[in-house]
Specification:
By secondary structure, the protein is α+β, with helices and mostly antiparallel strands. It folds into three domains: 75 residues, no CATH class; 76 residues, no CATH class; 58 residues, no CATH class. It contains seven helices and seven strands; from the N terminus they run αααααααβββββββ. It has a three-stranded antiparallel sheet with strand order 1-4-5, with no helix packed on it. The protein has a two-stranded antiparallel ribbon with strand order 2-3. A hairpin with a 6-residue loop joins β2 and β3. It is flat. It starts with 10 loop residues before the first helix and ends with a strand.
Length: 241
């Protein structure tokens, strides 16, 4: 029986396909497998040279196009499968407790738990235990203004979503103040950038109103992007519609 499925890789598309497959008689595991394969196929059709977002990857280290067949099904190596089978979380809550009971600061504990969650099979009960542990720590920090750093949690989540890895280091950097006088050069059509965590290079073309304005300081030593209808997500730069 051929089941008509939605294209796309959004959570709504995946959930709709799982429901449709279940109505057609597929088991829960089979429906999830097929729906996620369809989502990966749609992702790579839209981003033929892009890196798969970690929410769709299985195992989590498999984010390249060659890790999947033409229908989005994982072509996992035995070593990758073994890393999933022998994940430390499978041995119980020992590693969670070890992190929680360590002398690290709450924020470092959160980063370690988030990294552990990334290495755990997606949506499994054990991954939910890890997520619950770091969510509880985040709530504690939110309740204590002295330990809460603005936007650190959001920045960490965006970094993880884009790179598939938890940041290893949190540090302050000095950002120079905006210049009092600057030059408006013109619109930016294309941006290319590399990612230190993965060594990848990305290329994005801004379209229409999404194009930002290139601003240069009067001394020529600082460059900024101003305006433009775009945002940076776990897929990199995305033009707003």
């Amino acid at each position: 029986m051929i089941v008509p499925l939605r294209s796309g890789y959004s959570k709504q598309s995946i959930d709709a396909n799982i429901a449709e497959l279940r109505r057609a008689g597929h088991s829960r595991d089979s429906a999830i497998f097929i729906a996620y394969a369809m989502a990966r196929k749609s992702w790579f059709a839209t981003h033929p040279r892009g890196h798969l977002i970690y929410e769709l990857a299985w195992p989590k280290s498999a984010r390249r196009k060659q890790d999947y067949d033409k229908d989005g099904r994982p072509v996992a190596t035995e070593s990758a499968l073994q890393s999933v089978r022998t994940n430390p979380v499978a041995k119980g809550n020992t590693q969670i407790n070890r992190i929680l009971e360590s002398d690290a600061t709450p924020r470092i504990k959160i980063l370690r738990l988030q990294n552990l969650a990334l290495r755990t099979y997606a949506s499994s009960p054990r991954q939910k235990e890890v997520i619950a542990a770091y969510k509880a720590l985040e709530a504690q920090i939110a309740d204590n203004p002295r330990t809460a750093a603005p936007d650190v949690t959001r920045a960490t989540a965006l970094y993880r979503g884009f790179t598939g890895k938890a940041p290893k280091v949190l540090k302050k950097i000095n950002v120079p103040p905006l210049p009092e006088t600057a030059l408006a050069i013109g619109k930016v059509f294309v941006i290319m950038y590399s990612v230190d965590a993965t060594g990848e290079r990305f290329h994005h073309e801004f379209v229409g109103k999404a194009r930002p304005l290139l601003i240069v300081a009067a001394d020529g030593r600082q460059v900024f992007l101003s305006g433009g209808a775009y945002t940076f997500t776990n897929r990199g730069f995305v033009d707003k519609k």
